[in-house]
Amino acid sequence: MNRATVHAQSILIAALCGALGCGSSHAGSPDGALADAGVDGPRDVGTHQAELDASRLGHCDPDEEAACGCIDGFRRCDLCADRCPTGSACVTPAQVCRAQDIDGQPDGSGGLEFWIDGCDFFVDDGSGGRSLGTYCMTGKVCAVGVDDTGLGTDVFAGACFPASFCKAAAVADPPAPQVRCVYSDGTPVVNGPPPGDTCPVGDPREPFCGGACGEYLRCPDPKPRPRAIVGGPYDPTEPAPCLGLSETRNLGVCGYAPGRAIRGGDFGNGRAIARCADWYGEPCAILVTHPQLDEAHFEQGYLLLASVCRDYAARFRDSAECVGADWSPLP
Question: I need a labelling partner for 95 at 20 to 30 A (CA). Which of 79, 85, 157, 217 fits?
């Protein structure tokens, strides 16, 4: 999918927002000419996690299944000409009808919130276009275009679904070969994350997510503070993505912001770490997970509190590490 048209073609806009009307689920990535500031003590940031209704994303009653077919409780839209049920739209990469995750709920400020859990990211060095890093903001995984590579101008873009949907699509009858799901590092979802017994207690600012922690709990909403007219630190104002789930890791962790760090991008990485540290008032670091889609050529990492990064990496010593801006391991 070409970067120049990704938002027009993206499922978040063309399929769902265009059909239903909604607010964007994307936050800007932490780049740009922003001044860095030093650590000056812990800040009061958001820790609230919205618990989403698992039953509202999709349904498929017997009549719909007979007429169109179902995949994991979502009505298919690739096998019949019937319109999707009211309140949902056909998700092109997944070929099923899907509703918004939040549809007209009070937002706490007198307005209503409309929100779709989506993804829009790349796995290369960013030289092909603008930097993208938005992944699912719950413990779900991303259904993307079957031809998307995540490299160059073919960004991964789509909507988020439970891992069970991706597994069911792989054995659907009739087949659904166009359905393809990927984790935050771009690797394919095959069997889904390993099972886990309980969700461990983590830092409420960047809690664990996905797996045993559930697929319908949204990462915390950061508490915004005034942004300087010129310069000033990057202030995340939307939920951050759930990062790190894989075929071998049964937990993700809620990151600082959608933007990603890139191996070799020491200057930009340093600025991003400084902005993260300014936001929290504590040191930040870069979480790097392995294997990645093409780490021999490109390697990415996620911005986290250094304490959270160390905790996560300690749980997955064989596949996760914490590094600084120059990709040197943290002491």
Answer: 217
From CA 190, how far away is CA 180, in angstroms rounded?
9
Q: pTM for the whole thing?
A: 0.83
Tokens encoding 75: 């009505």
Q: If you search the block for the tokens 């949902």, which residue do you land on?
A: 88
Q: What 3 state SS string does the chain have?
A: CCHHHHHHHCHHHHHHHHHHCCCCCCCCCCCCCCCCCCCCCCCCCCCCCCECCCCCCCCCCHHHHHHHCEECCEEECCCCCCCCCCCEEEECCCCEEEECCEEEEECCCCCEEEECCEEEECCCCCCCCCCCEECCCCCCEEEECCCCCCECCECEEEEEECHHHHHHHHCCCCCCCCCEEECCCCCECCCCCCCCCCCCCCCCCCCEECHHHCCCECCCCCCCCCCCCCCCCCCCCCCCCEECCCCCCCCEEECCCCCEEECCCHHHHHHHHHHHHHHHCCCEEEEEECCCCCCCCCCEEEEEEHHHHHHHHHHCCCCEEEECCCCCECC
212-252 pLDDT tens trace: 899 999 998 765 544 443 344 444 556 789 999 999 999 99
Sign of CA dihedral 235, 217, 202, 326: negative
Sign (positive/negative) of CA torsion 221, 227, 230, 232? negative
pLDDT (tens digit per residue) in 266-279: 888 999 899 889 88
Amino acid (1-letter code) at residue 107: D
Distance of alpha carbon 236 from alpha carbon 233, whole angstroms: 10
